[in-house]
Amino acid sequence: MTSPHHNPNNNLGYVGLAKELLRDVGSDLRYLVGAVGTGGTLCGTVKELRRLGSKVVSIGVEPAGSIIFGGSPHQHWQTGAGAPAGFCVGPNVDHSLIDEELTVADVDAFATARIVARRTGFLVGGTAGMAIYVALRGLVANR
């Protein structure tokens, strides 16, 4: 078993993604919104971006009911993210790398995923719907 919540190589796997983002977006990269889950993608990417000099603001998202941010546990239907009551959150979730921690209700995540599918043809799941929901709310709020 690879134990992605505790395996430091999980986070290291996203060093290349950070470099790719900087190459493709450059210094205009202001925000990175992503599901937290094991911590690998979001924390690994943000750590490398900052090591390379980026001042990116990271926004971690989790399903409402996940304990990763210390909230009250309850059932959620999103898969790929979220931790139930009693789950041992591993060291790959580095809260010092997450500037803003937000939770999203299942209904908002799945409704967003459906809208994306209808309007673009891209089929995304609840976890991506959750991140897109937060990103779109941020765009609207910062007009």
From TrEMBL:
Taxonomic lineage of the native organism: Bacteria, Pseudomonadati, Pseudomonadota, Alphaproteobacteria, Hyphomicrobiales
Entry protein name: Pyridoxal-phosphate dependent enzyme family protein
UniProt keyword annotations, A-Z: Plasmid, Pyridoxal phosphate
Cofactor(s) named in the record: pyridoxal 5'-phosphate
A biological-process GO annotation: alpha-amino acid metabolic process
Alphabetized SUPFAM superfamilies for the sequence: Tryptophan synthase beta subunit-like PLP-dependent enzymes (SSF53686)
Domain annotation Tryptophan synthase beta chain-like PALP: ranges: 2-136
Statement: the UniProt record of this protein carries the keyword Oxidoreductase: no
